[in-house]
Request: fold
Amino acid sequence: MKNSNQKKQLFIVALFLSAFVFASFSLVQKPWVVPAKYKSMKNPVKVDAASIATGKTLYSKHCKSCHGVKGAGDGPKSLGIDTKIRSFLAKDFKAQTDGEKYYKGFIGRDQMPNFEKKIPDIEDRWAILNYMGSMK
Reply:
């Protein structure tokens, strides 16, 4: 009888460990594959007070709810998203090319939606990136 209880306990422990390992692997974010044509894109919109102001307005409308007021990935909708939202203040974000940021921000994937229809003006998209680059 004792042996049977030990087997049940061992089975339950193994089951919990398996669930933990599976959950851990499912939380690992796969790397973005950014096509070459985007990687080499350069921002055509001058970084100035006007573009940053436009970007801030559009960011508040389209991005802030997930990415947060300061771009830390802590907006109110971030709690309901499985994917970890990265901070725009992080060195690895800032080290990306203009085109990589553009692709990830406007083409999107998975839970990061495509914004080409919601923000159809190319200059507006770049203005948002100018604002994001100004965040501290």
In short: Confidence is low (pLDDT under 50) at residues 20-26. Residues 1-29 form one domain. The first helix runs from residue 2 to 27. The helical segments are 2-27, 36-39, 49-62, 64-67, 91-94, 98-107, 122-134.
